[in-house]
Amino acid sequence: MVDEGSASVHCRLSEGMREIGRIKSQVAQTARKTGRPMREVDSLLFDLDGTLWSPLPLSLHCWNEACRVNSVSSENVTEENLRLCFGRSSSFIRSTLVQSYSSSVQRKVCETAFGLENQNIAYHTNLLYPLVKETLERLSVSYPLFIVSNCQPGYIEAFLESYHLAHLFIDFRSSEENGLSKHQNIADLVRIYALDHPIYIGDTQLDAEAASLAHVPFIYATYGFGSVPEAGFAISNFSDLPKLLTQ
């Protein structure tokens, strides 16, 4: 019997490779017609929270509800603390938002909050940063697009479905789903899809460090949740990305 999960992954990989081949062929054809050399960057990998959207209202609602359902205090569920949690591991999130409780209670609250987030993304469809969808549509013509996040299982899928963006991305990876670190997931996508000159776009120092460990250049999204003082490349708006890539 064929495992449905393995079959789905294989299908996504096959479709992704075909799409990458199509994009490369189209870019090469355009380069020949215009007489311009082919650009070096050949693929774009994105962080999610703080890079493509700002889910702060969603997370604030869901974590408060998770605390209420589990009869624990939500005094630490603040915008300031949630900003610190985006892009971090579930253990960091638990210790920040419900640190006064036992490990088992922390895990239960976290599980509840993550489930609520996945369920409620569909009701928070106004949280994309300005011009994200339009810019992704433009970029997808010339670059294979990927997402690499530390988020919980099902979160990326719910995001892509709710914002009607799934058709723009070749593949994605979630650290909480597969147990790999962010830099391992970046490196895994680079290896599997034979990406020659990828770039990772994110908004935190941890994103920059993950890109460095994966030996991938990094672009800092300054409008997000974190700070990357020594970033070599940066964008102040998502819509600035196409221009930066062609410089």
Give the full name of the CATH homologous superfamily of the largest domain.
HAD superfamily/HAD-like
Q: Which CATH architecture of the largest domain? A: 3-Layer(aba) Sandwich
Strand content: 5-15%
Approximate shape: globular
Q: Given the helix and strand composition, which structural class is it?
A: alpha/beta
Helix percentage range: 40-55%
CATH level-3 fold name of the largest domain? Rossmann fold
The gyration radius over C-alpha positions equals: 19 Å
CATH class of the largest domain: Alpha Beta
Largest sheet composition: 6 strands, parallel
User: Widest sheet: strand order?
Assistant: 3-2-1-4-5-6
Annotation, overall tally of beta strands: 6
Spans of at least 5 consecutive residues whose pLDDT stays below 50 are: 34-38
How would you describe the overall organization of this protein?
- Helix content is 50%, strand content 10%.
- With 247 residues, the chain is of the alpha/beta class.
- The chain folds into two domains: 40-53 and 127-245, Rossmann fold (3-Layer(aba) Sandwich); 56-123.
- It has a six-stranded parallel β-sheet with strand order 3-2-1-4-5-6, sandwiched between helices.
- Helix 9 crosses helix 10 (205-213).
- The chain is globular and about 55 Å long.
- The N and C termini lie far apart (51 Å).
Please render the helix and strand layout as text.
Blueprint: H1 4-34, E1 43-46, H2 56-69, H3 79-85, H4 90-97, H5 103-120, H6 132-140, E2 145-149, H7 155-162, E3 171-174, H8 175-178, H9 182-192, E4 198-202, H10 205-213, E5 218-221, E6 234-235, H11 241-245
Parallel strand pairs: 1-2, 1-4, 2-3, 4-5, 5-6
Helix pairs in contact: 2-5, 3-4, 4-5, 9-10
